[in-house]
Amino acid sequence: MSTNSPLRIWLLAGACSVLMAAAAVTISMPAVQANALLPRSIATAPPGLPISSATPASLAPQITARSYSADALHGIASWYGGVFNGRHTASGEIFDMNALTACHPTLPFGSLVRVVNRENKRSVVVRITDRGYLYDGRILDLSYGAAQKLAMIKPGTVAVDLEVISRGESNHRKK
């Protein structure tokens, strides 16, 4: 007998154990037949109702300008500038306080939005370039330049109406 005999015995016993375990699992699993009759579902749709199955496209969120509630298109806007001028925005662009841009919590970067001051009816079209927390339930934070066009520098905040003209490409930061 060689010194490898105990090792061979252990390997042979291990292999046999694995084969027996595989056989036990195979025997305990019920057979599946392709042509077997499946039990009828308990819950059925009433006749006449269309039934459609979900597809990946139908499950994806469908966000359009109209999917925002009417309240989301009316609210209070404020403006920012000064200390943020020259800093990077959430989109990766450099903030120019005199440009016609804005910060919105959800609209994709690059979206164009018409903002109308409800008090004086002045309007301006801004591009969404920034993201951030808007204080006191505000819906938009305008650049200083856009705020000038709406004559809202002195009051700081005004009631506005928003109209989404076009949606931007994505919410991802530019590289």
Provide structural commentary.
The protein is of the alpha/beta class and 175 residues long. The protein has a domain of 100 residues: RlpA-like domain (Barwin-like endoglucanases, Beta Barrel), CATH 2.40.40. 19% of the residues lie in helices and 22% in strands. It is built from three helices and six strands; from the N terminus they run H-H-E-E-E-E-E-H-E. A six-stranded mixed beta barrel has the order 1-5-2-4-3-6. Strand 3 and strand 4 form a beta hairpin. The protein is rod-shaped and about 95 Å long.
Number of helices: 3
Q: Specify the structural class.
A: alpha/beta
Helix percentage range? 10-25%
Order of helices and strands: HHEEEEEHE
> Can you give the mean pLDDT?
78
Percent of residues in β-strands: 15-25%
CATH fold name of the domain at 67-166: Barwin-like endoglucanases
Reading side by side through the largest sheet, how are the strands ordered? 1-5-2-4-3-6
Principal-axes geometry comes out as: rod-shaped
* Tally of DSSP β-strands: 6
| Low-confidence residue ranges | 57-71
User: For this structure, what is the CATH homologous superfamily of the domain at 67-166?
Assistant: RlpA-like domain
The Rg value, from CA coordinates, equals 32 Å
User: If classified by CATH, what would the architecture of the domain at 67-166 be?
Assistant: Beta Barrel
Q: Main beta sheet, described?
A: 6 strands, mixed, barrel
